[in-house]
Amino acid sequence: MARANLWTREQLIMALNVYFKIPFKDAKERHPLIQKYAPLIH
User: Fold this and answer.
1) In terms of CB atoms within 10 Å, which of 3, 4, 17, 28 comes out highest?
2) Structural domain count, the chain
3) What pLDDT, on the 0 to 100 scale, is given for residue 28?
4) Which residues of 18-40 are buried (b: 16+ CB within 10 A; e: fewer)?
5) 40 within 8 A of 14, measured Cβ to Cβ
6) In degrees rounded to 5, what are phi and psi of residue 35?
């Protein structure tokens, strides 16, 4: 089965950067940092 929609290296770095900056309990879709980077990563 083919894997589709893989992130680029840059997208992965951005996603990990956001993941490590936001405490898990605050990681909701309405968090301003997630809102800022979501369009760039998706």
Assistant:
1) 17
2) 1
3) 87
4) beeeeeeeeeeeeeeebeebeee
5) yes
6) -60, -35
Q: Does 26 fall in a domain?
A: yes
Q: What range defines the domain where residue 34 resides?
A: 9-41
CA–CA separation, 13 and 16 (whole Å): 5
If pLDDT is split at 50, 70 and 90, which confidence band does 2 have? low
User: Is residue 3 included in any domain, yes or no?
Assistant: no
Dihedral of the alpha carbons of 21, 25, 29, 34, in degrees to the nearest 10: -10
Angle at which helix 32-41 crosses helix 9-21, to 10 degrees, equals 170
Q: Is residue 37 part of a domain?
A: yes
